[in-house]
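Consider a protein example.
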Amino acid sequence: MTRRNKNDYFNVPGDAPRPVSASVTRRCQFSEVDALAIAWHGRYASFFEEAATELGHKCGLTYEAMREAGVTAPVVQLHIDYYRPLRLNERFTIHASVIWSEGAKLNTQFLITGEDGACACTGYTVQMFVETATGEVCIFPPPLLTAFHDKWLAGIYD
């Protein structure tokens, strides 16, 4: 059995820069709940995606930027830990933080808090960079990711 984790999912070297984060606050909608008026468990991945999209805009790692750079970054791992349900019409905040990695991948942690501030859900995704033209996994970070890393190390996102 794996341990549920409200903290960090990734091991990061002590000299790594702090995570870059973005958040989205919204309301749980009728189309997202089940017959018990709680958010259906399958919706949480799309909640993560909303915050990840905001984070991508902050970091210059949008889907459009990736397409122009000739790379994609499909999700290869998704993990979710549920702690309490989100209810119909409840306001909640999705926090996304990209965690430092030297590789050609994006490690993103997520935290969803309810309107009371309590943790409703945590999780993470791992995305690997792939060259669009060949379908080959990138062994080294593509220039788009390297440019983001350079800005990150320079403290642009602090």
